[in-house]
Fold these 2 entries.
Entry 1:
Amino acid sequence: KKRVAPHESLFFPRAAEQAADPDSHHSIQGEEELNEQMRMIDLTDDDLELLRRMKPVMERNIDEITDRFYNSLINVVKLEQIIVKHSSIDRLKQTLREHIVEIFDGNVDNRYISKRLVIANIHKKVGLEPKWYLSAFQNLQNVFIRVIYNEAFNDTERLTMVQTVTKLLNLEQQLVLE
Ligand code: HEM
């Protein structure tokens, strides 16, 4: 099983080398910290590979995932008001769908990270408080885990899939709380 050595950087290999350099660019230091965050949640190549294998299953269930997400959301008056003011359910369902499917491409690179930082900023601008953001993630996670339980081949696969998906959701939350 392929593992990442303690000081090897899975996602931003340049960052580790340059982190020691006092003249290094600020964003590189940010990348090294991201490496540490990903090491801490034990996000490895195996996870990325598994995500890619899970993609068809998630695509098959994407309507249920996004429907449940927005049904729970519009039950909170405050959140419905934010959506009506800044966007629409139909529009957001489409962008959420793309966002979720992209997680299962298993490409956690600079583009992936910065895209999520931009979305976090959009949410800040529309006045979405972190507590609602985190609630929304739990709602997504509930549905993901149920889909996995229904679709996984056996218990071992279920456990691995749940761990992988929760790692990626946790990473999203880390980026939002930056
Ligand atoms: C925008 C994802 C939670 C309200 C977006 C976009 C994405 C996204 C991908 C599109 C950004 C773009 O246009 O490129 C998510 C995820 C969430 C989450 C993954 C949590 C798991 C929420 C919640 C609300 C919300 C709880 C409640 C009000 C909005 C609004 C916009 C938006 C109003 C559009 C802002 C605009 O178009 O100017 N979100 N969202 N989001 N989200 Fe969320």
Entry 2:
Amino acid sequence: VRVTFTPIQRREMGVTGTIVVLQDVTEQEQLEQARREFVANVSHELRTPLTTIKSYLEALEGGALEEPQLAQRFVGVTRNETERMIRLVTDLLHLSRLDSKEAMLAKEWITVSDMLEEVADRFAFQLLQRNTEIFIVVEQELPTILIDRDKIDQVLDNLVSNAIKYTGDSGRIELGARKNAQNELEIFVQDNGIGIPQKDLSRIFERFYRVDKARSRNMGGTGLGLSIAQEIIRAHGGDILLESEYNIGTRVTFTIPYLAGESEEI
Ligand code: ADP
């Protein structure tokens, strides 16, 4: 609580009283705390690949360049780390645009089944490599919907990519869509992967929150995918929810209301 005292003064009578203002600054404090944590996280996430790159470059300089095979491996590592930094900075830019409401939704009418089939196509090679199958289940005669296709594709890509990343080989992924009783489009991505322990579930949409940092990093993750997905879905007036059982699988569902009318700005 912040307390401020202001004396009440009258010309002839001097100070006749005091105004005391008690201000609840909990929310401000929390925001400030979240901001500090975010900056610390970003710095750490950028520092880690930079440190790796630096040490590999030093090794190359210190003699590894003379050994072609070793040199090739080291160059490979620095390139991977650079790519991860680019992904991270791109994700941060997306988040900051969504935060500042700069992002306008460019909505168009979309046929959901086509959209889902194209997502599966984009991952065809990766799915084949992991010997994982994807099934698309779309309710018949699902109406078309007015959405920002690029942004919803970004959400879907992230969810399917997570489903693949956190499911071992020979997995099974289901991608479904239906219209629910609240006149919303409901899309889900379900996997039979490693799942998320109960204790982590409540924090999973937080920026940089990861169940297993090392695993996520190895998989090329930035820890921002779900936060970005949540911002995009909320910008569409919808909601996103994640259900998971450790060692059984995960299901992420998002909804987007069917609106009458044309494209709008947020
Ligand atoms: P990341 O880039 O680390 O994948 P996300 O924001 O997309 O970041 O996800 C946050 C964390 O949630 C992941 O690090 C992972 O621990 C967990 N997670 C997300 N999706 C799944 C899933 N389908 N199965 C198991 N864990 C998941």
